[in-house]
Structures are given as C-alpha cells and as structure tokens.
Amino acid sequence: MTRSFIGRSAPLIVAAVTALAVTPPAPATAQTAATAITQKSPATGTTITLITGDVVTVRPGVVTVQGPDGEQVGAHITTVGPDTYVYPDSAKPYVSAGSLDKRLFNVTYLLREGYSDTATDRLPVILGYQNAAAGRRAAALPDASTEVRALPSIHGRVVTTDRDRSEDFWSSLTGETPAAFEHGITKVWLDGKVHAALTDSVAQIGAPAVWAGGNTGAGIDVAVLDTGIDAGHPDFAGQIESSASFVPGEDVTDGHGHGTHVASTIAGTGAGSGGAERGVAPGADLEIGKVLDNGGSGQDSWIIAGMEWAARDRKAKVVSMSLGGSPTDGTDPMSAAVNALSAETGALFVVAAGNSGPTETTVGTPGAADAALTVGAVDAADHIAEFSSRGPRLVDGALKPEITAPGVDILAARSQYSTEGEGLYRTMSGTSMATPHVAGAAVLLAAQHPGWTGAQLKDALVSTAKQTPDYGPYEGGSGRVDIAATSTATVFATGTAYLGIHPLEDEPTGTTEKQITYTNTGAADVTLDLELAAPGVPDGLILISAPRVSVPAGGTATVTVAADLSRTQEKGRYTGNVVATSTDGIRLADTVVGLSTEDQPRHLVLKPSGRNGEAMPGEIMLLRDGDPAGAYYFFRTDDGHAIDVLVPQGRYSVWMWGDVEGSHGPNSRGVALVNVPTVIVEKDTTVELKAASTREIQAITPKLTANAEIRLDYHRELGTASVTDAYLVNRYYDSIWITPGQKARDGKMSVTARWRKIEPALSINNGGILYDDLIVLPGSTVPAEGTKQTQAVFAGTGTAAELKAAGVKDKIALVRQDDLDEQVEAAEQAGAALLLIVTNETGRWYDATSRTKLAVVSLTKDSGERLITQLGAGRVDLRVTSDPTTDYLYDLVRYWPAGVPKSVVYRPSERDLARVDVDFQSTTDRELSERRYDYNPDMPVKVGSLSTIKVDRFRTDWVTPGSDIRWSAEMNDLRSFQRGGSRTFTAGSRTSEKWLAAIQRPRINDAGTLPYRDGDRIVAEVPGWGDSGADHAGDAVPEGSSGQVVTLSQGKTVLEQNGWGWIDSNSGLSPKRLPYRLLTTTEGDPAVFPYSIKTRTAWDFVSDATTKRLPLIQLDYVVDTDLAHKASRSAGITVIPSHLAGAPSSKSIRTVTVDVSFDDGVTWVSRRLTQGRSGWTAELRAPRSAQHVTLRTSAKDAYGNKVEQTITRAFGLK
C-alpha cells in the first residue's frame, strides 16, 4: 500500500512570488475562475506550450488543448478558485507523485506572469537532483535544454528549454520509468516569477538610542536582494561595498525604485536630507544584489542565485529580502535555500511576510522558511497594517510571522530612474518597508555581538520585541522590533517554540515538547521567574518544566515547554508567551509558544477497484470544505492498489478517474468517474472507489458517427470549497463510465458529458460487424467518397517481404503494430489499397504519420486478433465506406445539475435536437479549424480542442437544445478568426450559420469582453474583422496583414487612442451624463482581404457613472454572393441593427440608412430601405461598369445612441 502525508506539503498550493510594497488599491471586484483568464490577448488566443510539449490556447473564458503534433490529447482542465490548471495525461503521474511543480500547468499563472509563447520562446525550470554529485554530472541535463546556472544550495540547476523542442525535453526527462525522472533528477520546478513586494519610523524602533552609544552598524555587511539601487543617490555615497546583477541583460541600476527605498531604510546616510532621513544602520556596508528586473519582477532562480552570492561569496551577516510569494509550507525551492544557507553560513535572512492580510494563512515564500525571520507590518501607533499577511504557516500551522516593524507610509530614498514620485525621497507602504527596519536592527545587533550566528540574532530580536498585546502571535508575532531594548538587554530566549499539530484521539495522554534556551551575556548570574501567559488556553495543556531557572554569566540554561494533549478535546489553535522576568518583576525575555489541535491528520485509505473487481490505476482527487481557494489534493495509483494518505480531519468530496475495461473487450480501455460525494474524516477512514457499479455513458445518434471528441466534467461545491474538473478524454479510451443515480446529500454536485460525433471519414464493416473502434491516423489520405468491397490479407508485421508474400496489391493489408514509418513505406510500395494496423497495446492507438497517399487505420487488439483468426480460416472481404469531407455532425451534451440520473444513455432523435445549416463561404478549398463550445452554469471556462476538418461548402449540424446549455462557435481559416456569440437552441428548431461571408467589419459580441462603464472607467474590446454572419466577431490572421486604430473621445477631447482594438480608459471621465464617441478604423492587405479593405465605424453614445453596458449599436449584413464574394447587380442587401445584451432593447432602434458607392466613396447614392421581420432591405441597382460596392450605413435609437459605418469595397459584383 502506498502512503502519503498531506500534513507536510500542500498538494496544490503554489508559490507565486510578489514584491511586497503596497500600491494604491484597484476597485474591489469579485473574481471567479471564469474571469481569471480575461487578459487582452490576440483574437486567436495566446498559446502556452507546456513542458510536455502540449499546446494550450487561452482566450477570455476559453481554454483549448492540443498535443505536440496538433492532434487531440487527453487532459484534465481543472479550475479551483481563481486558477485554471491544464494537466495532460502524460504529466499526471509526475504531478501526483509531487515531483513536478503544478505551476507548470497553471495556465492562469503562466499567462499572468509572462510565460506564454509570445512572451518568451524558452521555458525556464529548476531541476532538483538526488544529491550534489548527481547534479554535477555532465550527463545530468535532459536533451533540448541549456544550463543557465547551478544552484548548489538546493542541489539544483537552472535550465531553459526551447518551446519548439519541449516534446524532446520531456521525452528525455521522463524516459521509460513511470512517475520517475531520468538523469538523477528528483524534482522539476517552474523558475517562477518574482515582483518587488523614515525619520519617525527609525525612531519608533529605537535606532537613535543605539546610535547614541556609538553603534551605527559599522563593519557589518548587509545584503539587499531587490530591484538594484540608484548608486548616484547622495544617501549611498561610500555605502556600497559591492554589487551584482542576477537579471539577464540588466545591470544593478534600479529602474523600479523598490530596491533603492529598501536599501535606504537599512543603511542610507540621509545626506540628501541633511542627515534627517537616515536608515536604521547608516554605518553598514551594502552588498547590492539585483534579483528583480526594472519592471519589478524576476524568477525564483535569480533570487536563489542572489542568496548564494550574498551568503557565500560576500559573507553578508544579514540578508534583507523584501519580496515574497504565495503561501507555502516552507518546503519550496526558495524556502529550502534559506534554510540551507542559514545553516551553512550563519547568515540571517530577514524576509517580508507578504501583503495578503488580513486573511489567515497568507505568509508567503521564502518567509515561510523555518530559518527566516519573517516580518509583518505595523503603523506608527503599532497597529497591525490591514495588508500585513497573517499566519499560521500553511499546512503545519507553524508560528509565522515572528516579528513586526513599521511599514506604513515609510519615507526613504527615491531612485532617480523611477517614474514614481519626484525628488530624492518618496513614501511607500508594505511589509517590504517593514523588513529593512528589522534587517537594520539585526545589523546593529550583529555589530554589538560580532560572533553571533543568524539564529542567535533572530532569537534576540524576537524575544526582546515590544509587546503588541492587542494582536496574537499569528498576527503580529512576538511584537514590534525594539532595537533599543535589544541592544541593552543581557538576557535572551528562544524566539518561538511551536509544539505542532497533534491528533486528540490517537494519543489522548501523549505529550510533545520543545526546548527553550536562555542566554545570559551579562557578567553576573541571573535567576529568571518563568510564567506562561496564555489567555484562553486550557489549564495544564501547555506546561513549563520549571517555574524558575538560573542562567550563569556568559552561559545558557534550558527549560522544556510541553503540551499535555489529554487536557483538551476541542479543536483549536492555542498560543501564548513564556515570560521570563527578573526576581524583582522586570520582564526580560519572551518566547512565543503555539499548539494546534485543528485539522487533525487522519489516515484515509483509498481503495480503488475496476469494473470486474480488478486493480484500477488512475488519479484520485480530494476537495475539503474550508481549505483555501485554489487548494485540492491530487494523488495517483499506478498499480491500481490502495493508497494510504494522511489528511486533516474534515468533510471531503472524493472522486477518481480510473482506467477500466472499455466497451470492446478485455484489451480495450475506458475511463470511469468514480465518485464518493461526501466523506467525513474524523478518525482513520477507508473509502472504497468501486467501478463495478458504473455504467457506460453513451450518446447514440440517428446517423452513423465516429467520436471526434469526448469530455466528462465533474463539478463539486462543498461548503466554501469548489472545483470543476473537466477531462478531455484521451482517444486511447473508447468509452466513459459513471455510477447512475448518484447525488450529493450536501452542497452541489453536477456532471456534464460532452460528445462531438462526426460523419466517419472511413468505416469498415465485416459481414455486418461494424468496427467502431478504429482510428484513421493523422497524415494519411482517405479515399474519395464511396463504398467498396475489398479483400483483406494478413501480412504479419508489415515488412516488405511479408507484404509481398501476402500479395497485398489493391487489397487491405492487415498487419500487427511495429515501426509505423517502415510499415507505411512498405505498404505504399507494395500497392496496398489500405493499411490496417492491429495495435499490440491496450486501448485504441494512433500516431501521427507523415503525409501519405495511403489510408492508414488502426484497429484495437481484440477486434484485430479476431480478424486475423478469421483470415486464417479463409477469405474475408471488408466493406470500406469513405468520405473525406464532413457532411454532418452532432454536438451533444448531457448536463446533470443535481447529480447523475438512473439512465445515462442519450438517444436523441432529430426532432429532439436543433438543426444548424452551416455554410462555409470560403474562396479556397482548404482545411478549417472549427469548434463549437458548450457551457453551463457550473463551467467556469469553456473547454475543448480546435478541430481541423475538411468540408465542402455545406454541413448539417445537430445540437443539443436547452435553456441551461449555451453554445458558441468559432472558425479559423488562417486569414481571419471568427467568433460567434453565445446562444441557446430549442428542440426542433432550424437555423443557419454562415462563416466567411462577404462584408468584414468591426463587430462586438460576447465571445470577448462586452463594452462597459464602471464609475470612471470605460472598457471596450472592438474586434475589427467580423464576417457578415450574424453575431460574428473576428480578427485578421496572420497579424501584420491588417491595421486597426481605436479612439475614445468626449467632445473634442481624446481620452484614449491605440492600435490594438482595446480601450481601457479611466482618465477624463465625468460622472455627468455626457456624449462620447468610440471610433475605430481598419485597413487590410488587399492581397489577403480582397474586399472590405477599409472600414470606419463611429459609435456615438451617452454615458454617466451609473452606466453599465455601453449602448453600442451593432450592424449585421445579409447579401447573396458567390464564393468569390460577388453579388448580382440587382441584389438586395439587408441591414440588421441590434443592441448588445444589457444595453437598451434592439426595438429602440428607430432609424436606419444605407448609402452605396461604386467608386470607393467618391460619390454616394442613397437607397430606400424597407423594414421587414429580418431587417432593413434595399436594392443595389449597381451600374454595369461597377466592379465593387462600398457601403455607408447608419442606425440610431430612441435614446440618441448612433452608429455610422463605412466599408470600402464591401463586396464585388458579377
């Protein structure tokens, strides 16, 4: 049985490091996962090539996944809290084993932090090795990687891999051993991004009193790892001992300003202010390590490299790090480096806690490290800043932060290279500003005690901090740093003693203990009275081994603090202070103590079993009520046997994606969603995940179809926790399975099954037996439309000799799977009519072949072996039906919002579906990438794979109707990318959809961000190239083939203008109701776009601060053209004006006009319009000499909102 322990690691909590200076707040808005992926990006989407080589395309609210070869790939798209993760099947064993950083698959994070393919062509990762020797070996690097630097403190190496060779890198990294890496590598992390996080404040912590004694920190090296420094600032004259940049392509000059401010707070001389704005330790020597770039961001490896330089090379006694990241349990790479370097060098790392307060459990990395002195922020009155991150530490509940310092409105040096502020000084707030106060105090203390280690400095500062009794240890640590008190003290104590998380029921009389060491630097022995100050802690729960202790002069003494767990049966966090006073009652030192009986770890045994009771490999997920947003647990059992995980007590939902026998025999593969909606873990618990009760979820269509895509979604809400786990089923599987009749007794549970079923490109029938388990391999050529009876012959493994001996010319060559390329080449040369490969693997099989004129098809092992046996008994003719174009398809979905029904078979008739007649008005015969997305109330993002299909002009689609199922379609023909708006369908309805129709112009729909006003902000996305199909928004492809300018103005004042089709203006907006104009012009390359070569669209609207949806009237057009986009001279043209959802009703549009020009707008002729049910129609009446039509259209509503649109050469004339 495999065992895992959740209590020491956070399975899906990742570290995204940020600089810890507080910026002015943006308007607070609720962010859901649906809005998390909403950044402005190219219309075709932003691509992210994952470490596996799989390609994810992200657009607002949409995620698509394709394999390295562009084909469909199995992947989980999991949305938890604000983040969406994409886990390809090939990565899941490594992620669940904890050896592969989940940030590598967090597409929300990767997009936000600049890891898209357009932002960087190389992916930086940190490789962790078994030991230092393994990491030094020359052969220790995977293929297709380039070493950037070594990180010996964590036995690591930083490498980059070319995005174009990610598949090679992944193959070399993973090798053949399941869930284990090659080259001695044990862990792979993303090299994550990092962002940059005094007179009164210096006096507040008592620094002037220390200076008065002659101590300014002289002779002590303090490293500042930040955005660099303005070395020309007068406050740093003679202060900088050395500097180094770890940011590629940038020197140490601080173009951001954060690092200069921090360094000034530590050791600025105040020369620029006549000595007034001195730092805490103005005599110290600064070692400046630039680890964040001029934009305020960097990578984990830059920081670790800077840490190694500071502690090892420069031998800095104190290292100040005003940066931090997402909450972790202290085992991430940066925290590990802090611990290792602290132990090795004796340096003290002073680290910001973070600015994610007042929420609990928000202390980030590397402040989560055990050895770090982690700093929160207070204001001038010692009140905790609301933004200051709170403890406890994630997962184990350890005591963090340890101390606080002034961090609100701190005045310090300003970098002349910064665009923020003016003059020599500026004010900033954040735990970034608190951290250098503590670092400076540590420098002063180190100068006083030059032989002390970093651990001793930490204990001294923490144990003598000024009490802040209004705040508990998880908020303010031991209190606010007080260097005046610390520098005069002679008695110090261990700063913190955490007694851990402990089960109440496992050892009801058990105790746990920690040592507290008292240090006496004075010349006389000291006797200390010890008392536990712990309000609210049950009597006897926390005990001190002695009420009094004597500490010899220049020596140490220890006492034990212990927990008697029999003294409480309540869950809770218990904290207090062991207070050491002199015999005359003077408080000398404090130790913060803590104990947690919350989240008790219990053994949860997960026992999977397959449809026939056999072992069931697969991924198991756990969601726990009350966990932080974005957290859930992810395990895998490769052998299909039980796993034993140690989890906190609580209420869970457990589900598993198990590999089971499919619908085509013992060697077929299906995937079963086995779900236990609610599991209460109060004691050791066993959960059985049985697939025996599952049934196949089927969609049976009126016409013969093949599965082009299957998806199965599980959505669960459990108290405050929520997850949507969508699985794009790998084509190796032939079926999906679930337990019918299953519902959740608490919270919400829904399941969605989705199929795209298309007319088969090729089908094979053997005497009435239809082989529905075959796959036409990509790259092969499907014969022309028709049906033919063809003899099949068996040719072994498909060698040239075997094919010749079998006489395969003009026959179907049946072979067992071997080297595909060699088999294809030999079959072509032998003249086979079709190559039918019997897989030797479990499940369906496919591989990409090079382009070949031969049809290459794979058949599953069970079906194939039966056919081989049949051929051994005599002649077999197979009926092969082929059609290389798709004439019909079914987009089907079953959404079960309240649990799984008793019947999971979907057998719709055509009357039960909606019919969509699709017209692809393409001017050339080529493959199109096309997709129809479904979504329902439980889907935070739309998920799918873009399908490349071959079609004639017309196709009939059948779609599942329903008010709770919305659909949106998109199409890409490599010249324009079109996105349809969302809609629902009704059963029995018949609608039409035209793609690539004539007349391209700016058109807005809900496939992107609908235009809105929010107070003093206007946001509008204006796609410039929507085809005239109803409700289509589009953009030109490829980029560079067109240009677009968008301008927002109020009266004669231009508020914003840009060339990327996106307005986000928050300047110059009056709260009054005023007229505005949104103007966009486009210009296309006639060689790419022969028509609609120029457009001008002006929206005039009125708006005030209360307006939400902007009332921008949209114009659709209908004109009958041929595939060359030419209309007859007497054709009618229909204009359909409409308002966007949330704006005034389209019925308010009262006036429409159309003018036409046949000389590119030199002269115009008005055309009389007739209003009908379908729109406003006019007759062209084009002269015989005209070659094309230019349109000028306007529409106005009853509220004064208006649109004017001019389209030059909108379409041609026959």
TrEMBL record:
PROSITE patterns: SUBTILASE, SUBTILASE_ASP, SUBTILASE_HIS, SUBTILASE_SER
The PA domain, residue ranges: 793-867
Classification via Pfam families: PA, Peptidase_S8
Coiled coil feature spans: none
Keyword Hydrolase (UniProt): yes
InterPro entries: Ig-like_fold, PA_dom_sf, PA_domain, Peptidase_S8/S53_dom, Peptidase_S8/S53_dom_sf, Peptidase_S8_Asp-AS, Peptidase_S8_His-AS, Peptidase_S8_Ser-AS
Keyword Protease: yes
Keywords assigned: Cell wall, Hydrolase, Protease, Secreted, Serine protease, Signal
Active site (UniProt): D226, H258, S432
GO-annotated molecular function: serine-type endopeptidase activity
Signal peptide stretch: 1-30
Residue stretches making up the Peptidase S8/S53 domain: 217-468
GO biological processes: carbohydrate metabolic process; proteolysis
Homology family: Belongs to the peptidase S8 family.
The protein, known as: Subtilisin family serine protease
Source lineage: Bacteria, Bacillati, Actinomycetota, Actinomycetes, Micromonosporales
